[in-house]
Amino acid sequence: MPKRAARADDPAGGPFAALPAGLHAHLQPYVTDITEEVVEAIRTEIPEYTRPSDDAYAQGVHRGVDHALRGFLERMARPGSDLKPVKATYERIGRGEAEEGRSLDAFQSALRLGARVTWRRVNALVDADLLPRNVLAAFGEALFVHLDEMAAATTAGYTEARLHTAGELHQRRSRLIDLLTADPPASVEAIASLAHTARWPVPRAVAVVAIDAGPGAAARPIVPPEFLSRFEGPPALLVVPDPEGPGRARAVAGALQGLPAAMGPTVGLREGARSLRWAAETLELMRRGVLAGTGLVRCRDHLSTLLLLRDDALTDALAERRLRPLEQVRPPQRERLAETLLSWLGSGHNASEVAVRLAVHPQTVRYRMRQLDDLFGAQLQDPVARFEMQVALRALELRRAADGYGEV
User: Fold this and answer.
1) pLDDT by residue (tens digit) across 22-31?
2) Of 40, 158, 170, 270, which has the highest C-beta tally within 10 A?
């Protein structure tokens, strides 16, 4: 069997050009038997390809093996031929594996198994003197070059399909976040329909987490797959299903790894807008320094603070109505009197307890209370006025602690 001259344009780098001319014709009669043996080995040894009752699937496996072997022979016949059609075929196979939901490991195993079976059959043909022994080295090299190129093309198709699927899934999940936090709310039917296409089991309740993942943040967090996430913000968002389940808050905090974040209240499926609104307001208080500025903060632990600082203009109006008498006093005495009044209102009007809270002498408290009585008169005996004074003073105290404004 004469050797074929090597060609400089051989895309395989030489192995196919080094094969004896006419070898493909000698192998052609054995292709059917080799195909059957490879198919049987794949269906026997690789569980992912075992579907005894699925004739259409079995025929597909058979066609794939037959195509691989005949493509190999075609390259043997024409070593300088264009590889694009062959690569395109295996890219399609890779995309099909991804669409079937299989790991690419199964297909790679099938390729290796097919190569081993083919190599054994060719060795058997050589032992039976049906092929010359001197073809084995070049044949083996060409076979495994072909195997590597098929594997690379399959991987490229598989990766492309997975990225495409992941992109579509990300878009659907992002749209689902919009639907769950819509105001007015979307229908349960619309949410369930989109959740199905986004591969997200519909929970009974959700909570929205607003995250401060700005430019200075570390790498994007890796969150559990059952959470919906969107980090394109601001703010970045998580939707946590059934947030009162065991370990849920711990899972969120663990995933965020110290990023400032606020977890809204647990709400029904159509009330995500409220959970998001409270989470965003809490996150803003964290930015202002009213609440802890790192880690996960739960809205439910700070409801009174949220309520008091929800509307600065309303707080200012209440302070103007109830705390105006303090304007007659110069700072810093005004601040000392406001501090004493707030403590007195919160301690059941007990001067001794106020003294302990403020770390001053009880007589100092009594002196200040006489001043406050002169300023406010009957208002200090009015339950409604006392309540509104306490609300205004507490809100102003929180604001001063955060950013230094809101002097009484």
Assistant:
1) 888 888 888 8
2) 158
